[in-house]
Specification:
Largest sheet of chain A: 6 strands, mixed
Radius of gyration of chain A: 24 Å
Shape of chain A: globular
Strand order of the largest sheet of chain A: 6-7-8-3-9-10
Distance between the termini of chain B: 60 Å
Oligomer: heterodimer
Strand content of chain A: 25-35%
Structural class of chain A: alpha/beta
Helix content of chain B: over 70%
Chain lengths: ~475, ~300
């Protein structure tokens, strides 16, 4: 028997043209907590989903206790003693805790037996829970415990935790990670996906760092430092991606335009009553691009929607112009109606406030000119939006929002999923909007995009917004919650 | 009157409530609201129209007719508003609440025609006849065809125009097709728009009930609707939710129902045959629509 509980060797995985993993490797020893660190899109979750049988690798080997295995599905992984707790809850909210934990089991459901088994498991592992509570009535921290108990109920030898502390308060997070440490005392293994350097250093025995799908560092936590990990995560030298050429790099000096958008002490709570933004203040002036950088789930989703006037603040003062253009990340769902024509989709902007009769002739003319100006490749304005490629859909959305709003534009990952030419076109339009005096806010999970476009950068970390220098080093550190050295 | 003329007249008389209730269903479905309750709203409208029609003083003359129809619209609208409120306040699925409200309407009407609204001799389970001023004028003298049919055509035309050319209609369509995009890109108050469409849908179904009372039965009976509100769903779906198409499909189903009773009378063929044909038509339409949308999406995916 080897000392390694789970080994992933030279795993590669692509989604279409984008490469998520390039021969990434990881080796988790028995009786240890193993942390996986990396930026957004570094491939951490993809690698673990492969280990859990949710995704099939294009190449590479999975070994459990030294034996090669391949998992066609999560149930195959579970049968081999691997369990995973996902970043997003997978609970049935109308069911009780017991029912949720028993879900996915085989055979008959014996409520009383399931309940006593759950209580025994909760007692053994220290994850206190009321087995009869309905999940929808539980706070986020307790729901997280249910997820973990669900995973532990299969008696796994390897437990994968994907960002388990993202939605927890610091005290809850500390408690959870301490419990994870205890779990491995009897020879189990915990794999912890995290963005948080300090958690990794404090709770993990081993650390693996992924960058752009490659394992760039692996070793003992005790033998490394925060600084070494930061430079491993961000890369020693960062060459801006080829997609961003000189055309997009002419930053304007600090804008002296008027304040167009302002937030003062704005707080936002989500449906689970978790505070996503904490008394945030921010001003955006005409003629500047404010770049927003953040690790997934730190409150940038809410910040952008507050800035765009798409959601209401729980408290605080929000001052917005009458119209703010918004380019949401999920354009298929939030920006376009795929089964309507391009003309109808253009008419959608501002439809909530329109009175009386739709002037379809004028809207048709506007759509045609938009198709021309923004180089949308479409036969005419009457084809359904679903017939366009992703890039052309996005050009239509960008054009529509800029023409409609003029003074303010909020963009969320505007070039995600686009090819190089379409990305460059979209970025070019955003810069033009800035140059013509609009206040622009852009969030991107691609740091290259922020660094090349933004005149000023703010970082959202755990619901707080802080101003930050426009370079990889300071953005990267601020995103991880590390203050400048 | 030749048998053919008689058949056409009967067909159009039958088509009128189906057409108007079909419009009601089409509006709701366009808004993404699965209003299965056109039958209950029809009955609520018929009840209110009958009540106004019976109790209107003779002195107001023909004004009794618009009053009865407006009462029908209000009652149908309120019936739908209950489900709309349950949906927006408690998240109750309208498919379930409207079916339940259909039962409540059916049995409430049944109670009313045996209780408070029963005719003056207290023998039959029906109301008194409505006053002359509340009766729909006849379109072709010597037949049963009344102006309610023309009202149906007008409603279809207006609905078509509103859905196609008004900002409100566009908001309804956008909210129905993609509530997310309607909210995020259109800044549309989706719950308000869909609730509004739901209530208008109920009001139109209520008008259908009012038209039936004022144009055909002249009183409220226990089974005033032989499932018009359910057939209306087929009428609307077969028309592809197009208000102008509802005219054609309403007449088609009117013809099927008329022919069914004629067949039974003259040839001994069970009238339920028509129901079987209706169901087959609906299944065929749904299958074709599915196939078409699937082929379209596969094109888009390439």
């Amino acid at each position: 028997m080897t000392d390694v509980a789970l080994e992933l060797a030279s795993i590669s995985k692509s989604f279409g043209r984008s490469v998520a993993l390039r021969s990434a490797s990881l080796s988790a020893r028995r009786g240890t907590v193993h942390a996986i660190l990396g930026e957004n899109g570094a491939g951490k979750t993809t690698l673990m989903r492969i280990a859990f049988g949710m995704l099939q690798p294009d190449a590479g080997t999975i070994r459990v206790n030294g034996e090669t295995r391949s998992f066609a599905s999560p149930s195959a992984a579970i049968a081999n003693g691997i369990a995973m707790v996902h970043q997003h809850f997978t609970l049935v909210s109308a069911m009780t805790v017991t029912e949720n934990v028993a879900l996915g089991g085989r055979g008959l459901f014996h409520p009383r037996q399931a309940r006593s088994e759950l209580l025994a498991l909760a007692k053994r592992t220290g994850f206190a829970i009321d087995p009869d509570a309905r999940v929808e009535n539980l706070p986020a921290g307790a729901q997280q415990r249910v997820e973990i108990l669900k995973a532990l109920s299969h008696g796994p030898r390897v437990l994968i935790l994907d960002e388990p502390t993202a939605i927890l308060t610091p005290a809850e997070a500390e408690d959870l990670l301490n419990r994870a440490r205890e779990l491995v005392n009897d020879g189990g293994t915990a794999i912890l996906i995290t963005h948080k350097l300090r958690d990794a250093l404090k709770f993990a025995d081993d650390i693996t760092v992924l960058r752009r799908g490659v394992t760039v560092w692996t070793g003992r936590a005790a033998e490394t430092t925060e600084d070494a990990l930061v430079s491993a995560m961000l890369g020693g030298e960062r060459v801006p991606a080829e997609s961003i050429r000189n055309e997009t790099s002419h930053q304007s000096p600090v804008s002296d335009g008027e304040v167009v958008i302002s937030l003062h002490d704005v707080s936002v709570r989500d449906a689970l009553n978790v505070e996503r933004l904490k008394a945030v203040s921010l001003e955006v002036r005409g003629g500047e691009i404010v770049g927003v950088a953040a690790v997934e789930g730190n409150g940038q989703h809410e910040l952008l929607r507050i800035l765009a006037g798409r959601i209401d603040a729980t408290s605080g003062v929000v001052t917005l112009p009458p119209t703010v253009g918004f380019i949401p990340e999920d354009r298929q769902r939030d920006a376009l109606i795929p089964d309507l024509s391009l003309r109808d989709n253009v008419a959608l902007a501002g439809a909530g406030a329109r009175r009386g009769v739709m002037d379809w002739i004028a809207i048709g003319d506007r759509t045609r000119s938009l198709i021309g100006t923004y180089d949308v490749r479409a036969r005419d304005e009457n084809v359904h939006a679903s017939t366009l490629s992703g890039g052309n859909q996005q050009k239509l959305v960008v054009g529509r929002e800029i023409e409609w709003a003029h003074v303010a534009l909020v963009a969320e990952n505007p070039s995600r999923g686009l090819d190089i030419r379409a990305s460059a076109a979209v970025r070019g339009r955003i810069i033009e909007a800035r140059d013509s005096g609009a206040a622009v806010v852009i969030y991107s999970s691609d740091l290259d995009e922020i660094v090349s476009l933004a005149d000023r950068v703010v970082v959202v970390y755990a619901g707080n917004v802080c101003e930050c220098g426009n370079d990889y080093e300071s953005i990267g550190r601020a995103m991880l919650g590390v203050t400048a050295p | 009157m030749s048998p053919t003329t008689a058949f056409i007249v009967d067909m159009l008389v039958h088509a009128t409530p189906l057409m108007i209730a079909g419009l009601a269903v089409a509006i709701a479905f366009r808004a993404g609201i699965w209003n299965i309750g056109a039958d209950g709203q029809f009955i609520a409208g018929a009840t209110a129209a009958a009540w106004v029609g019976v109790s209107a003083p003779a002195t107001i003359g023909w004004l009794a007719l618009p009053l009865a129809l407006v009462a029908g619209a209000i009652a149908g609208g309120i019936w739908a508003a209950i489900a709309a409120w349950l949906r927006s306040r408690f998240g109750v699925l309208e498919v379930i609440s409207t079916i339940m409200l259909n039962f409540i309407a059916t049995y409430s009407a049944s109670y009313l025609v045996r209780g408070p609204l029963q005719e003056s001799t207290h023998v039959f389970p029906q109301t008194d006849s409505i006053v002359a001023g509340a009766r729909m004028p006849i379109l072709i003298s010597g037949t049963r065809l009344h102006w309610g049919f023309i009202l149906g055509l007008l409603l279809a035309g207006v609905t078509w125009w509103v859905m196609k050319y008004s900002a409100t209609g566009f908001r309804i369509r956008a909210s129905g097709m993609s509530p997310f995009a309607a909210r995020s890109a259109g800044l549309i108050n989706v719950p308000r728009v869909t609730s509004g469409a739901f209530i208008v849908s109920g009001a139109i179904a209520g008008i259908a009930g009012g038209v039936e009372v004022c144009g055909v039965t002249f009183a409220l009976y226990e089974n005033i609707s032989p499932g018009y509100g359910y057939t209306a769903i087929a009428v609307a779906l077969l028309a592809g939710l197009n208000p102008l198409g509802v005219i054609g499909t309403g007449i088609l189903f009117g013809a099927l129902e008329t022919a069914a009773s004629t067949m039974q009378r003259n040839a001994g063929i069970p009238s339920t045959t028509a129901s079987v044909i209706e169901a087959v038509v609906i299944l065929a339409v749904i299958a074709i629509a599915q196939l078409r949308s699937r082929s379209r999406h596969s094109v888009a995916a390439t």
